[in-house]
Amino acid sequence: MRDRLGHAVWAVGVAQFFAVHSIVESAWNRPYSWAAHNISDLGNVTCGPQGREPAPRYVCSPEHALMNASFVALGVLFLAGVVLAGGLWRGGPAGTAARVALGTAAAGFALVGLAPADVDERLHVLGALLGIGVGNVGLLLSAAGLSDRVAGVWRWGAAALGVVASTACVLLLLHQDLGLGMGGMERVAAYPILLWAFALGVAGLFGRTGRVARSTPERRPQEGERRV
Predict the structure, then answer these.
(1) Is the CB of residue 133 less than 8 Å from the CB of residue 88?
(2) 162-177 pLDDT per residue, tens
(3) Distance CA 154, CA 65 (A)
């Protein structure tokens, strides 16, 4: 029951974030661009030109309070999922390291909402580094930290998504967007951990995270053997 509750809060936390993201961006008078705008632009409390990262742009998010509340809710629910779904993880250092990294990422998500970029940039950047940077380390560690009872697809998925997201994070820091726009590259760095957690949460909620047991074929009696 405790594990299932952990899966549920993970799924709800990520789902509410993307739902609120859609609502808040649709409230902009000037179109919000996934390529040109940061995710954090949705939580900025003031309107005006933003001349620094990722590029000069105009930012005005009328529903910024809703977005910042969603960041905080994401952090709280993500942390609750890490704590509650203990059955997902190995005992020992591997599972502990993965859970600590994911819990740290959860704190980063909440900090992003508590300190909008145009209110306290230093704390906001710290939150983003914890949420994205440490979060992607947690995703990679999950490849080794998930329990043997969990199907291998979740470990391989964590490893593959962790590599993609970590590479995108490095490119983002180097101001290389590969034609995606800096906002687009930020999403490649930030969203894999959320999508993985959502999928794992939904699967766990319905009891679909475990290994599939292989049925043993019935042995046919050989010639000369008696049937019982």
Answers:
(1) no
(2) 999 999 999 999 999 9
(3) 34
